[in-house]
Every structure is written in structure tokens, then in C-alpha cells.
Amino acid sequence: MQIQGHYALQFEAVHEAFAALFDDPQERGAGLCIQIGGETVVDLWAGTADKDGADAWHSDTIVNLFSCTKTFTAVTALQLVAEGKLKLDAPVADYWPEFAAAGKEAITLRQLLCHQAGLPAIREMLPAEALYDWQLMVETLAAEAPWWTPGQGHGYEAITYGWLIGELLRRADGRGPGESIVARVARPLGLDFHVGLADEEFYRVAHIARSKGNMGDEAAQRLLQVMMREPAAMTTRAFANPPSILTSTNKPEWRRMQQPAANGHGNARSLAGFYSGLLDGSLLESDMLEQLTREHSIGPDKTLLTQTRFGLGCMLDQPQLPNATFGLGPRAFGHPGAGGSVGFADPEHDVAFGFVTNTLGPYVLMDPRAQKLVGILAGCL
Predict the structure, then answer these.
(1) Roughly what angle, to the nearest 10 degrees, separates helices 134-143 and 160-173?
(2) Using one digit for the tens of pLDDT, what is the confidence trace for 63-91?
(3) Domain limits of the chain?
């Protein structure tokens, strides 16, 4: 496999480890970018981007980053907090009156951002096409009752996060949530990152497919068992209501929509650049960065059925848990996306890391491919 890009010689072992990913015949395409102190020390890509394995992954290939998008969304919300357009601890209903229905009048933006609001899923099954109807989704969530007492425990808002936070961005910033995120976060840093992709960019989006035969770890199997056996469980509804959530990633209407929980499109460079921008203070002042990265939620996740630890819209490292550590140090913060992509920052080493793939693995939190690369990186520092 020919590996494209460049790397500083100190990171030869990282280059070798990235190349070794492609020893697996199922591995299709991937990108890796590592920045230290804002300088790019590794920028690699390889493999294929299209459905049939005929087109090479290029320097400008982008891919659906799934939940890596959430931290971009949270940073945008925190910028609006810093400007006084939103408040972390004011009721969401102050900005979105309809949201007060069904016992939600006291829920705050902070609770939404750290997955404590009790709204990871919608109980009543919606049609597949509801996924693309913003108004219907926000009205449905505004009417929904929390699944537990808000503030008492947490459960990951896998997709609802996008409508919940996105509607607040829309109301506070006066434009589509994707437009807001791109204007405030991506454009100032020159990141090739999009939430709501223009049709003329579709040609460079990598086609995503699942790897076969790998059952994943215990957490992945636990989640799968619930989804197969308990169609009405909160966890199942969180990922499969509307039922189109899990099957939409390669569809044009998914790429076009502005769903800031899960449909950001970008490359490894945009992830590393984003986290560099957080480390160097370009995106948030130190008080807001402290809010973003301070532990808000820890313990058993009611949605993911594994232990998670969150700041505000970012996942925090759990070094003692194999499926939940980024791998560099306890202060690391970032976000994995479904199937293997991940972006994170490690303040102790001033490292910003981005890994993207179009070969979906079955893991719930961290994918072993990214973790292996981080382990090799640690040995080079």
C-alpha cells in the first residue's frame, strides 16, 4: 500500500504503524494528522475512497466524521455563551419556549451539553424521512418527556444532540446551525470542515462501509444485543428512531442537511487543526475552555451501556478503561465518531490528533486502530 503525505523523521514509527493498518485486506481508506504546538508533524493518507475501491483517497478527500462533530457544535455554543447570546445555566425554554413542555422547564444548556437532560431518544417511532425534517424533529423533541430526572445521571444523546443544541444555535445566532459552526469555527482556522455539504463537494466524499466479521469488544456486543432484542428500549430508540439514522451516511440528503451531532464532513487535518485551535486559544478564551474540558458527567452511561466521562460536548479520557482512553494522558479531551474516526487534544504534550477512516469498526467509544497509532506516537514524543 502506498502511503501519501509527509511526516517528520522523529515519527517514522507512526508512519509505519499507519501503513500497517492496510495489512488488513478490509481496510479501505484512512487519513492521519498530528500537530504539536500547532506544527504539523504527521499528515498521511492512503487507500481508496469510493464504493468499488477504484478511486484513491486523495489529499482533499473528506469523510463523514459522525460524532467527532459534537465538539465543534459545543465550541460554537460556548462562543455564543461568551458573547452573552446564550447562558449555560439558564433554562433552555428561555430561548425556546416550546421546550418547557412535559417537565422540561428547568433543563439547561449545560445539561444538554453534558448529556444529563434525559433526552437521548424519542419514544414514538417516526418515519424514516423525519430524519431530514428539521422542524418536525425539534417539535418532537420539544414535546418529549425526559427519560429520567434531568441532572440525575447521564445518557449519550447520539443524534438528538444535533437538534437540541442546533436549535439553540439557530435561535441565538440567526442562521442554520451548520452555517454557524462553519463561520465561527472552521473558516477562521481554514479548516476543510462542513456541516451541510454543498453538492459540488460530493465528488470528494469517501464512501463509508462496515468491516465484516469483527464483533468488537464487550461494550459493542452489549449494545448490539439490546438493539436486537429490545426494540422499544431507550438505547435502541437513541440509534434507530428515525430508523434511517444508521443507514443514511452515504445519501445526498444526509450530506446536505445540517445535523450537528453526526454529519460533519472533514478530514484528519480539520480535526487536528480544530484541537490545535482549542489548545492555542484561537477558538475559546481560557474560562470557556475550562468549562468545555471540566468533568461534568462520569459513570454508567444510560444510552451507551458502558462507562463514559464528559465535559461539555467533549469526551474526557478514562486512562484505566481500555475502550475509553485516547491513550496519551488523563487530561486529554476530544470525541470519537462512530466506526473509528477520532479527534482529540492532549494539553500535557501540546498534541492535537486527527484520524479518519471510511472502514467502520464496531466499537462503541475508542477504536483500537486509533489507539494503536496514539500508543506509537507516545513512544516518539
Answers:
(1) 100
(2) 999 999 999 999 999 999 999 999 999 99
(3) 4-71+181-380
